[in-house]
Amino acid sequence: MTTPHTSVTGNLRVPAPFNESPRDFAPGSLEATRVLKEIDRVRGQVRELPHVIDGERLPLAARTNVVAPHDHGHVLGHFSPAGEREVTAAIEAALRARPTWSRTPWWDRTAIFLRAADLVTGKYRDELLATTMLGQSKTFHQAEIDINELADFFRYNASFAAQIYDTQPQSVPGAWNQMDHRPLEGFVLAITPFNFTAIAGNLPSTPALMGNVVVWKPSEKSALSSEVVMRVFEEAGLPPGVINLVHGSGADVTAVAQQSPHLAGITFTGSTAVFRQLWKSTAANIDRYRSYPRLVGETGGKNAVIAHASADPEALVTALVRGAFEYQGQKCSAASRTYIPRSLWASVEAPLVETTANLRVGDVTQHETFVGAVIDGASVRRLEQAIERGKALDSHQLLVGGRTRSEEGWFVDPTIFQTTDPHAITMSEEFFGPLLSVYVYEDDEWDRTLRLVDQTSDYALCCSVFAGDRRAISQALDVLRDAGGMTYVNDKPTGASIGQQSFGGSRGSGTNDKTGSPLALQRWITGRFIKETFSPAHDWTYPYMGQRG
Ligand SMILES: NC(=O)c1ccc[n+]([C@@H]2O[C@H](COP(=O)([O-])OP(=O)(O)OC[C@H]3O[C@@H](n4cnc5c(N)ncnc54)[C@H](O)[C@@H]3O)[C@@H](O)[C@H]2O)c1
Ligand SMILES: N[C@@H](CCC=O)C(=O)O
């Protein structure tokens, strides 16, 4: 890296951020035709997905297959799991890049990520859509909102960074107080989940935007799209070594990273069990570190939709179908338990069951498909077990779905149970798939049911309240205050937009650092306060000391 220099004088303003609008992908439309062509191109290749360390692509050693979940016989690429040598090389590359990158003016860092946003919505858009659809089994619409969100992250984070740097303390005559928003001392480990290409790109880029250097370990199950994201960073001008990509097992990469005294933070999105493990292993190594590593984790959810008798039944059915079954229920925000009063259930049950039964499950490149495949065979087995447990319980009645198929792709039909046991595992555990449980309560038990929603699960990510009655809404907002970092009124619990609904949950759902807001960036800086005095004192005595006797 060359030494950074300041080429601009002025209090620069970042362009106003905006949300990308999703396109329709109507059959035969220009956007659909282009993406289908790109899908054909990507399907026709077996891509090498190398580690990228200090800007160098390492040749593959052992090969792990990357397949399309809806057509798992089809190999799309290979990666080679990182061992101690590669992770150590990635850490060393990051630490070499640090002196220059951490001194690079913030507007130069910001310009790189603004350029990345335009590459995401321009040159790389079709390739990102195609690799996300094929590698993660997303429909046109689900892939489109994911890729748009990646660009939104880059643009909004640029603007949040500018706001943070603009935050300076008050000064009084004779002195100048300054806040130096320093990056952390060391490197940040970013561990990302399979289900959003946007999250995979956001987690390593947020610390990098704030001047940090990063080792990025994407999910093995989204290696295909992660490789494209890495190329976007590079083409946008990110210097070698600032973000180093290593594929493979999270446990193996973490074990090496946690040996380094320079581990300054971990940014994780994934399951609650893994984050708890990361917290414990970091604590066990605490004496090694130069500073206290920052731990940021956004994890699982068991998101409730509670309806009041005054709710609009059609809006409720739509929210349940989209909230529970879009992207096969593999969103941390997915609706997975719902509480419906008996009077409303009479008009909700039939349309909910009928709509769910008619959702098309299959190949995501077909326009009619609403539900693609779940991510792997282990997910099918986990969901199968949950469905079998539900079927075996007297308290549960299977209303629709319940079938799985694994021959060609890993498919699980959208499934709804009705239960009379509000504490059953289907009402409390995350299964991360197209599985919804309904508990029908008596209309006069609204109060008690709100408390059930609050107390049934260890998670507190999203909840939705459906009601027409304003008092019912206020009461729900009060009782459910700690039950979710995200509360939606008359809307589904999924689909937060960057810059509008900053995302995160508390309790078992994470550290609630609110991605898509300045708070998320704040975790990757450590302030240095500078006070400069213009007329230093020359007399050490207090004023009254001269007035003796
Ligand atoms: N709250 C949020 O914002 C949010 C967003 C997306 C996903 N999620 C959650 O993520 C989960 C699904 O994603 P997933 O299946 O990719 O999660 P996961 O926990 O299995 O994997 C996430 C990442 O952690 C790595 N990993 C796995 N075991 C590890 C270990 N022992 N040590 C270190 N790293 C390890 C994986 O390789 C992957 O890169 C769900 O629980 C979902 O709710 C949460
Ligand atoms: N931010 C996404 C969820 C991310 C987790 O999977 C949403 O709001 O639906």
TrEMBL record:
Ranges for region Disordered: 1-25, 497-516
Gene Ontology BP term (one): L-proline catabolic process to L-glutamate
Any single Pfam family the record assigns to this protein: Aldedh
EC number(s) stated in the UniProt entry for this protein: 1.2.1.88
Keywords: NAD, Oxidoreductase, Proline metabolism
Keyword NAD: yes
Cellular component terms per the entry's GO annotation: cytoplasmic side of plasma membrane
Reactions that this protein is recorded to catalyse: L-glutamate 5-semialdehyde + NAD(+) + H2O = L-glutamate + NADH + 2 H(+)
Positions in coiled-coil regions: none
Active site positions: E298
Superkingdom of origin: Bacteria
Pathway: Amino-acid degradation; L-proline degradation into L-glutamate; L-glutamate from L-proline: step 2/2
Biased composition (Polar residues): 1-10
Sequence ranges assigned to domain Aldehyde dehydrogenase in this UniProt record: 64-524
UniProt-recorded Gene Ontology molecular function terms: L-glutamate gamma-semialdehyde dehydrogenase activity; proline dehydrogenase activity
Family according to the record: Belongs to the aldehyde dehydrogenase family.
PANTHER family given in the database record: DELTA-1-PYRROLINE-5-CARBOXYLATE DEHYDROGENASE 1, ISOFORM A-RELATED (PTHR42862), DELTA-1-PYRROLINE-5-CARBOXYLATE DEHYDROGENASE 2, ISOFORM A-RELATED (PTHR42862:SF1)
Name assigned to this protein: L-glutamate gamma-semialdehyde dehydrogenase
Species classification: Bacteria, Bacillati, Actinomycetota, Actinomycetes, Geodermatophilales
